[in-house]
């Protein structure tokens, strides 16, 4: 687990955000686990699952292909990220 948030409050995760990404400098670092109630209070950061601890399992489970084609709605086309933009670059 790791904690993150704005020390002064006002910006944070809230109810319904579980599983959402924690991205730092363009790199996926964690997924939302839980936060304070009420949300976004000063000096009360949210808790995230630290993904680098699960990197190997995710890569094995994804079959070594962290980015696969996805189709979003009927108006968009399939998209693939180049390997240089792996969500785990920097971990």
From TrEMBL:
One of its GO terms (biological process) is zymogen activation. It holds the Pfam family Trypsin. One of its GO terms (cellular component) is secretory granule. InterPro entries: Peptidase_S1_PA, Peptidase_S1_PA_chymotrypsin, Trypsin_dom, TRYPSIN_SER. Residues 1-63 form the Peptidase S1 domain. One of its GO terms (molecular function) is serine-type endopeptidase activity. This is Peptidase S1 domain-containing protein. Keywords: Disulfide bond. Transmembrane segments: none annotated. Gene3D superfamilies: Trypsin-like serine proteases. The keyword Zinc-finger does not apply.
């Amino acid at each position: 687990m790791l904690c993150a948030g704005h020390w002064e409050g006002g910006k944070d995760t809230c109810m319904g955000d579980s599983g959402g990404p924690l991205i730092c400098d363009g790199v996926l670092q964690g997924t939302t686990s839980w936060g304070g109630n009420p949300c976004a209070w000063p000096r009360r950061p949210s808790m995230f699952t630290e993904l680098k601890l699960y990197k190997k399992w995710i890569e094995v489970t994804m079959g070594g292909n962290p980015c696969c084609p996805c189709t979003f709605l009927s108006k968009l086309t399939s998209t693939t990220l180049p390997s240089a933009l792996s969500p785990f670059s920097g971990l």
